Amino acid sequence: MKTTHTLIAVTLLHALAIGNTVIAADNVCYPQVMAPATFQPATEKVVTHEASPTFATTPVQLGYGERSVKVADAYVEYEIIPAKFGEVTETIEVERERVEVENLPATYRTETKRVKTKEETQRWNPACPPVQAEDASAIPPSCLLEVPAEYQEVTREIVETPARTVKKIIPGKTQTVTRKVLVEPAQVIRKEIPAVYETIKLTRVEQPVKVIATPGEEQAQSIPVSRKVQPERFLKMPALCEEAVDSAEILLLQQRLQQQGYYEGIPDGKLSDKTRAAVTRFQEDNHLASGAITLETLQKLKLQ
User: Fold this and answer.
1) CA 76 → CA 162, 182, 186, distances in Å?
2) Secondary structure (3-state) at 24
3) CA separation for the pair 83, 182 (Å, rounded)
């Protein structure tokens, strides 16, 4: 790996120049830098309205008829000793008990859901100088800044009370009939008295109530999100040795960053925290490794 980096550095050093100054071979170092994470645009489906069934009912169908009820028994009457009778009260059902159904629609409540649209990541701290190390474990924690995840608030409707049906029992109806019952027949002169009947109207259920359920439709919303397909990683790359670079090279670097809108103020040729922050912002916007003034950054700034 070191041989490959050396060949890349030698090739770049033959072409790399800042203004009129050519970088010498001893001005190239191999610090640990952080390559940015790679994101891929995607969409996430969020349910904004949950499905709920609806119910429809067909009413009960009633039929009507008649029934002949005996209200007085036949008896025999005598002229000398009349017959004796007693009264009996009887309850007749004229309308049967039935069930009716009432439909109650679903009720909803609104809630806000927090959807993560971009995962948390890390970025290089511009105030941290390059780290000369063989692996990333030697990088100080202060050189890494946590970039929090991004979220979006989504309002959706949630079923609070589902649709339902309520059964209501309608009690049956009865009618009280009083009839005469022969207790003691007449004597001596026989006279037959026929029974007495009364016609009563009856109500019966021809077809019971029916409940038909229709499924509801779910409503959803697609939210654009950025998914991390490759995390940020640490690697060694050829870069300028800050202790060996002169002020003329830094001055030209500041001028080029100023032209790109990253450096504010008057270029002074000093490798300050302000200069490092401008370089880091340029690297992040162009998806370049950050943590040092890498040769690929100088190439992107067309300083070669």
Assistant:
1) 69, 9, 6
2) coil
3) 7
Burial of residue 239 (number of CB atoms within 10 Å: 0-12, 13-18, 19+): buried
Task: Give me 111's structure tokens.
Answer: 């809630």
CA-closest candidate to residue 94, choices 2, 198, 6, 18: 198
What is the C-alpha to C-alpha distance for residues 254 and 276, in angstroms, rounded to an integer? Answer: 10
- Taking the whole predicted model, whether its pTM rises above 0.85 is answered as no
Q: How far is 250 from 233, CA to CA, in rounded Å?
A: 27
Q: Give the residue extent of every domain in the chain.
A: 2-37+117-146+227-300, 38-116+147-226
**Using CA atoms, how far apart are residues 232 and 239, in angstroms rounded to an integer?**
19
Q: 């916007």: which residue's tokens?
A: 285
Q: Classify 41 as helix, strand or coil.
A: strand
Using CA atoms, how far apart are residues 112 and 1, in angstroms rounded to an integer?
A: 52
Q: pLDDT tens-digit profile of 216-269? A: 788 888 889 888 889 999 999 999 998 888 899 999 999 999 999 999 999 999
* Residue at token pair 């500041």: 254
Instruction: Name the nearest CA neighbour of 69 among 203, 152, 175.
Output: 175
